Amino acid sequence: MPSAAKDPYSSLREELYRVYLLKTTLGLLDWDQQVNLPRNSADLRSEQSSLLAALHHDAFTSRRVEKALDAMESINSPSGNDQSVVTRLVRRDFDRAKRLPRKFVSEKTEHQSRSYHAWAMARENDDFAYFAPYLEKTLELAKEESALQGFDRNPYDYHIDIHDPGLNAEKVESLFSALKAPLTELVGLLIDSQAESKPELFRGFPVSHQERFALLVTEKMGFDYSRGRLDRSVHPFCAGDGSDTRMTTRFDPDNPLDSLFSAVHETGHGLYSQGLPRDEAATPLGEAVGMAVHESQSRLWENQVARGRAFWRHFAPVYYKYFHEQLRSVSDDDFYLAVNHVSINPIRVDSDEATYNLHIMLRFELEKALFDGQLSVRDLPGEWNRLCLSIIGLEPKNDTEGVLQDIHWSGGAFGYFPSYALGNMIAAQLWYRVIEDIPALESNFAEGDFAPLLDWLRKNIHRHGRRYDTEELVKRATGKAISPEPLLRYLRERYLPPYT
Amino acid sequence: MPSAAKDPYSSLREELYRVYLLKTTLGLLDWDQQVNLPRNSADLRSEQSSLLAALHHDAFTSRRVEKALDAMESINSPSGNDQSVVTRLVRRDFDRAKRLPRKFVSEKTEHQSRSYHAWAMARENDDFAYFAPYLEKTLELAKEESALQGFDRNPYDYHIDIHDPGLNAEKVESLFSALKAPLTELVGLLIDSQAESKPELFRGFPVSHQERFALLVTEKMGFDYSRGRLDRSVHPFCAGDGSDTRMTTRFDPDNPLDSLFSAVHETGHGLYSQGLPRDEAATPLGEAVGMAVHESQSRLWENQVARGRAFWRHFAPVYYKYFHEQLRSVSDDDFYLAVNHVSINPIRVDSDEATYNLHIMLRFELEKALFDGQLSVRDLPGEWNRLCLSIIGLEPKNDTEGVLQDIHWSGGAFGYFPSYALGNMIAAQLWYRVIEDIPALESNFAEGDFAPLLDWLRKNIHRHGRRYDTEELVKRATGKAISPEPLLRYLRERYLPPYT
Question: What was the ipTM of the complex prediction?
Fold first, then answer.
């Protein structure tokens, strides 16, 4: 081999870096669409994004990537070292991308965009029938994609796996059924027993103060604003990677806790992104393992940390300084009750952290049935309402607050919902492990020191990237398989009197 | 020819559209860099931009564009019709792009981004030596580019031409020398004769009010906010095209007029962008002819319009309502004096519209000398200070308010500065033509009606895109060659007593 030849791993990394630049550019187009785009500029943006998506796909499935992979595989490096992990994971992604014909990809992209608009319209007019044919087609394409990937007999599993590598419907089912009965019982108990919260106390919080407080809190949590931002959007989200992490929240003068917890939640995502190995940003070692783990990070900060007494022991004095006027008639107990209020609500995103999981189980049942062929799209609204009553205990007034409430299915994101509840389970499981490892953790919080928690997460979760699949990562971090028990324990400790 | 074959013009337009999508994506990366980018995320951005610039270059210089151009040229359509104008201009751009090797383009883009950050750092620390090696490299690349384009003997001309097609150093020199003596005399006269302005009267203008007033004014001027935005950046600018026009300004509580005139200025640019034929966005017929004409639009709105009595006859009552407190002790005359104050200032962007042109002459002399090889980058700060004293009449205290003040050279934008003074000349020339064509123009302004002016500009400037070169466009719009006379007349009428 001539001495000037690049070693195969450098070649692979170089190709992946080019793919990464296209992916992050596409990410910026999307962020900008949600944060800045003028209302009549959407056509140009969708054409820019669709071109960039095609360029990204072409770059990743190129002959050069394939050759670099082949070369790496012929080396046969020891399994478990960085090179072999990267090669194995990129090969999996590459093969999956290759199995989708270009025509299928562009048909899917085009359909998704039309389906999104149909969903938005249907939701506005509470008209599921208008959306139904689009959803039928989306489901058909999703099944076709599963078949193309070799999941013909268990098509739903493929969609779970792309969100959380290594998981499938059976594993999710088993976790959810262990959670369901005790959670339902618990929710009933605490709805009956909790003192009345007074949301009407939280009115007229100036947005500029809210924003300053959110920046203060999230910076204290450890978010590096020299490599990230906090902006505003209708639906809070976190985009970008560790080189440029872009979080958003929304500010409502009459709902300051929602704004704050949204910011804290997205900061949990942002800290994960910033904790991934930046040198490996373009390889699987620098990517998040999946949505459940991502969600475990946001939920842990939002729920275990920011709804806890220790957190507020530090921040309450500052909060009361910022909002002296507004909080004049709010007692400490009122405040804590507002932070930890449980109520049955038809809307998933407005739900508290306990009942939220019931919303996910509902969607999981429906997705399973849709993929099994036991449920048709036509019968979906009726089945939604029936299951909603049986699982959550109420029936939506209409389809807009029922089957049409979520954006996910409009874009074909089946298999995504389970990640939310799995994230809640993993968050609680990590929490009990970390307070075991660091007994002083909550006294640290009370002093405004969140670094010990962040360091633990960096070491046990963030730094691994996609090296381990979801289940193995949790097992390595906590010593145990994923289980609903820690979540149940946490909810009991948090919500059943005496409050902790 | 088989009936399914696309006609050659449609093929050309299709290719150009793809190029346009890449160009506008690159534009968004740049806008975001100036408005949003976290300070430590610059490396990723410069790599993204460099890749997109290369993809843009590849797409534009592709075999497919060449074939479409060849096909169009073989048709030989009547000169002057849209198809032949587009073909001629795209061929010019194509040949120029082809002459730049891919490696050169990506090296240049990447260097620009790094150089920008070096300049920002140097400026902050008043440390020209830190920036010097970057600037040397930039100048070297600029000369190399001129040579690649066949301008080896007159490298500066190439850089003037890319900003203002058809112009060169000799033509600029001749216009500037006709302007210099009478302008210098005039500035001396009016500095001696003007009443004292009281800038200290303008203090403590809340930024949120300023922003609302700026939105009101710029919307009234005709800017379409459904396809555009006004954001904040350190240096005001206008980016994007008519599909998504992004302007910025800056807000200073103690300098509200600067903020306002910056917004008005950028809106002049924005209105030009929005007035270009949107169906032709991807062809030269939908592009601005050059920077001098662009600047004539911003200057006309900023100076001839927004510094005039008629404009304030409409807006002063609203302004006094927004800033009742702050303006309590400001008389009408004080106000008008503040709007039209002339003073010698080392900073170009803080200068009044009269002395501003002297700043440009200084930069033109230096650029000429840098390209001639008569001046080295090392000697630039000294020469700046010497010329500044001789042309403007003062010496900067340090390099930050001297040679480091402008962003342009950091990005390799040589040949751009002359456009500003040319823009001032053209603005005045258009102004005298438009008030001849529309005698009621200023009474329209006083009633808050700016549509007649915008319509005139749409018809005489905007709708032509790049159909005519700078000089021909001005001649068609005003009936006369570009001349410094209207600018001198305007400055005398505006600034010498009795004020008009």
Answer: 0.92
In the chain, the amino acid numbered A222 is G
Together in a domain, B240 and B173 = yes
CA end-to-end span of chain B:
66
And the tokens for B483? Answer: 């001349």
* A199: closest CA of chain B, how far (Å): 29
User: Which of A83, A99, A115 is the last residue in one of the domains?
Assistant: A99
- Whether residue B59 is found in the same domain as residue B143: no
Question: Using CB atoms, which residue from A28, A44, A225 is nearest to B243?
Answer: A44
Give dist(CA A249, CA A34) in Å, integer.
12
Rg of chain A on CA atoms, in Å: 23
What is the rounded distance in angstroms from the CA atom of residue B494 to the CA atom of residue B488?
Answer: 10
Q: Which chain A residues contact residue B52 at CB under 8 A?
A: 25
Evaluate whether residue B204 is within a structural domain. Answer: yes
Inspect the interface and report whether the beta carbons of B41 and A227 lie closer than 8 Å.
yes
d(Cα B344, Cα B191) in Å, to the nearest integer?
A: 8
DSSP, residue by residue, A202-245? -----HHHHHHHHHHHHHHHT--GGGEEEEE-SS--EES-TTSE
Give me the amino acid identity at B99: R
Same domain, yes or no, for B80 and B149?
A: no
Nearest to A185 by CA among A497, A473, A444, A488: A488
The predicted pLDDT at position B1 comes to: 43
Cβ contacts of B55 on chain A, cutoff 8 Å: 55
Whether A280 and A360 map to the same domain: the answer is yes
Residue B277 vs residues B271, B426, B457: alpha-carbon distances, Å: 12, 22, 13
Write the pLDDT tens digit of every residue in A290-342.
999 999 999 999 999 999 999 999 999 999 999 999 998 888 888 888 888 88
Is B207 part of any domain? yes
Find chain A residues with C-beta within 8 A of B227's C-beta.
Answer: 38, 40-41
| CATH number of the domain encompassing residue B463 | 1.10.1370.30
Same domain, yes or no: A407 and A330: yes
Q: Which chain B residues have any C-beta within 8 angstroms of a chain A C-beta?
A: 18, 21-22, 24-25, 28-29, 32, 36-41, 43-45, 47-48, 51-52, 55, 224-229, 243-244
Place of tokens 């990237």: A465
Give the Cα separation of B8 and B27 in Å (integer).
Answer: 28
Q: Which whole number is the average pLDDT over B190-199? A: 76
Measured between beta carbons, which residues in chain A are less than 8 angstroms from residue B18?
51
Range of the domain at B75: 8-98
Give me the sign of the Cα torsion angle B135, B136, B137, B138: positive
Has residue A1 been placed in a domain? no
Instruction: Count the residues in chain B.
Output: 500
CB atoms within 10 A of CB A89: 19
Residue A105 lies in a domain: no
Asked whether the beta carbons of residue B40 and residue A229 sit closer than 8 angstroms, the reply is no
Instruction: Give the other-Cβ count within 10 Å of A317's Cβ.
Output: 10
Nearest CB among A22, A48, A229 relative to B36 is that of A229
Q: What is the pLDDT of residues B450-472, one digit of tens each?
A: 999 999 999 999 999 999 999 99
pLDDT score, position A201: 79
- Examine the domain organization and report whether A345 and A417 are in the same domain: yes
Of the candidates A15, A266, A383, A442, the residue annotated as catalytic is A266
Omega before B2 within 30 of 0, i.e. cis: no
Beta bridge partners of A238: A247
**CB atoms A48 and B24 under 8 Å:** yes
The domain tally of chain A equals 2
Residue with tokens 């300051």: A256
| Residues of B involved in catalysis | 266
The reply to whether residue A229 touches residue B38, judged by beta carbons under 8 angstroms, is yes
The answer to whether residues A86 and A138 belong to one domain is no
Last residue of a domain, one of B79, B98, B117: B98
On whether both B253 and B305 belong to a single domain, the answer is yes
By C-alpha distance, the chain A residue nearest B225 is A38
